[in-house]
Amino acid sequence: MERKKREKREKGxxxxxxxxxxxxxxxxxxxxxQQIKVTCEEIIELVDTGAPLxxxxxxxxxxxIFNVLGEPVxxxxxxxxxxxSPIHKSAPAFIQLDTKLSIFETEIKVVxxxxxxxxxxxxxxxxxxxxxKTVLIMELINNIxxxxxxxxxxxxxxxxxxxxxxxxxxxxxxxxxxxxxxxESKVALVYGQMNExxxxxxxxxxxxxxxxxxLWDVNEQDKLxxxxxxx
Length: 231
Known about the structure:
Blueprint: H1 2-19, E1 21-26, E2 40-45, E3 54-56, E4 65-66, E5 84-86, E6 103-104, H2 109-114, E7 117-118, H3 133-147, E8 151-159, H4 161-174, E9 187-193, H5 198-217, E10 223-228
Parallel strand pairs: 4-9, 8-9, 8-10
Antiparallel strand pairs: 1-2, 3-5, 6-7
């Protein structure tokens, strides 16, 4: 009798625990000739925050590398999260939009002459490997920082770890990122890496956009938002 009561209590505890956990089961086949079943179970605790996904914004994001959740992934310690902003929010009203046409001077003569950028507009940069896309990006980031006192946000969608690391090291060498002085750093990086789920790739652009919007709306700084890549 006592044994049945104990088993019933344990069963109830197990059932209650399972209500708060999600079990993911993955099944695969080795080859066509031989069928095997591989089951991998991972117990993940779900927490309902009762709020939309929010990420840190403001000057504290400069020189740091974030994932889609706004968590720093550069091993440089925690980031100031006193100021955050949701990545999903309503678009600004039409009356709030700036319809005045003006040219954004990049300080790159061939660009300003042949393909000028519109302030507040969008530009697509297409090219094969090793043709200088990253060099142009670095020049734009440098020029907006020095000529306009602005900042940049780089969003890497499905980036390889090697590519992201190379870009980060190039930014440090050029002085765009200064690990010793945040005030001299002019760029924040957000990555949804290739090994992450599709949901991270889909939302990493929104995370980068949220950080860039705050720099313009609140700090009123000129900013460039780079998304690499969109297809």
